[in-house]
Specification:
three-stranded antiparallel sheet, alpha+beta, single chain
């Protein structure tokens, strides 16, 4: 009998790019973009690696994320990625 561990559950978590994510390329700083989140008000500078991954992957798992776990945690904490469905995210914004 296989018992799912906490690590297994965390690794299986799926993410979705927030509908409220805006990425603006920084012309004076090639290879970087400003990330803006429409309802959290978060503003951060990100590398093209992060921005391109998010452009190419509307949904993804932690295992598919090619950058550090710390980067993924920051993206989630700031609202750029979420584990909510689009409908759940809209409902959250309406509150």
């Amino acid at each position: 009998m296989y018992v799912c561990s906490v690590l297994d559950v965390h690794a299986m978590k799926s993410y979705r790019k927030s509908n409220y994510l805006i990425a603006v390329p920084l012309i004076k700083h090639p290879g970087r973009s400003m990330l803006i989140h429409g309802y959290t008000g978060a503003i951060d500078i990100a590398t093209d690696n992060v921005v391109n991954f998010l452009k190419d992957h509307v949904t993804f798992s932690q295992e598919e994320f090619p950058l550090s776990e710390k980067t993924l945690e920051m993206l989630e904490q700031r609202g750029y990625v979420t584990d909510k469905t689009a409908a759940e995210e809209r409902q959250h914004v309406r509150r």
